[in-house]
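> tool_call: predict_assembly(chains=two)
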Amino acid sequence: MCQGVSIDWREFLDWHIERYRLAWRSLTRMEQAEREYLFLYKQHPRELPVWCDGELIIAEWGAKNRATRLPSSGWCPQEVLESGVWGEWRPLLGEIPAMYAYDGNVWFQVPKGIRAVVLCDQKNGKHVYVLTQPSTHYYEVMTRQDRMPVFIGEQI
Amino acid sequence: MRRLIGHLDADCFYVSCERVRQSSLRGKAVGVLGNQGACVIAKSYEMKAAGVKTGVPIWEAVDLCPNGIFIKRDFRWYEVLSRMMFEIMQSVSPQVEYYSIDEFFFDCSMLTQVFRTDLEECAHLLQERIMKEVGVPVSLGISRTKLLAKLASDAEKPFGYKVLLSDDQIREYLAKQPVEELWGIGRQNTKKLHQYGIRTCLQLAESPPKLIRKLLTIVGERILHEINGCSVLPIITERAMHKNVARGGSIGGASRDPKKVYAWLVRNIERLIEALDTYSYVCGKISFILSFARERFRGGREGPSWFQAKTTLPQQTASSKILLPAFEMLLYQARLDRPVTHMHLIASDLAMNGREQLPLFPFQGEGSATAREAFWNSGGSLDHDALKKIINTKFGRFALRNAETLQLKEMYHDSAHSYDICDIYGKSCF
């Protein structure tokens, strides 16, 4: 399952960088390369940027605090979402503007972005979950993972 | 005036194509993966610097270059940019050879008139023009022969150019180039030349032709002429007739499932027939090769890692009615006791369709006499290959295909599989 994403620096306004304290996430892979912002599941705080209701927000990836009573993992299987099990939390669909994603130790290019689910807790805090589906043969060989994110547009 | 030949070669072409549509990839280590997602088929100079070689499995590439970004190949896009480069080349040269998707040989006689400056500057301006209009960096070599031009462009990579005109210039350049850098000198030939103390291109150029012919056959003699500035390899603007047409490759993960192997056979036959039809060929002989995953038998003996069989067809043809049963017969000769990894189908004894030797006793396959008669009398118009072609031309490649290939639904769901490097026609290299 997708363990991280990298976002093009152009996605964020200065306002985002300041409000969400993103400066430490800035990364340049090589001297000549452009800046990216890195969001990994293993990082703390565990966050993901997501377009939801027409605005780009940085939300908690999954729900660490059990008091929220939201699913604690950071992923939502598409089959589970479609079965209506998550209906009680009134899920909203979101889009992660990922440029690259990280899974099975491999960084790969994301065509247009990744679909996500956004849930709200009792205090109106937003939590984001990466929507997943069974891996294609290509994805499984590349990452050795049996689930892959639901990509926007073209699948890989 | 002596004719000059140019060689233009795109730098890390697949990666450069990806950078055209995704500028954020510039300056990063990028690897392009094959259709199965298992192997690196092209890499950027940044990834090369990390030690990643073409053909390595992705897990090795990730170990060597953990920050590298991997992309799925897209030959449709690469062809678009390749054709754009070809058009530019045709606008500056009267003769252009589309050697491969990212390499062109061309006649340089018009270059100084087109750019109205000296040859060195022309080479630079052509580079700049391709960079501006296509977005792909290229390296260029200009000299008296194809081989010298290619040697120069290869040695000046990336984004370099070299013009070699005078004897002194050429000799000085050849002295610096190892003999293995020459087009046509592979590992075995390099070994042979090293045994005779021939290590640089200049040493080869000064070697007796008799010795080179003995070591490298007539091909070596041609190389000798070319590096001495005597052009014997022409610019090929129209592809000569093939000796063989082949289709095949990996079967998407090792398998000994007869249904899957058969499905791949049918798919590869469909691709082979499509290629024969595109070139208007019929074939008289076929070969079939299976590669197996290496598996040790009990007792420590290792069996052969491949199976090969060939047959002569009852008549020269490009019809699935004859090719399918013929390849089936070859497949049944193979023992699928080990997982199959690759399959190759080769058509040889080629003739242009309509100019083939007609059989004394036309092939009579299974089916009613009436149907057979109708098929032969129709001149092919009732052939389902023709029907398939009409439908697929209208609705897309593989829209109508043999139901035996339903086994491969995973592959058909992925549109990248429907277009391969060999589907880019018009190249002179293969």
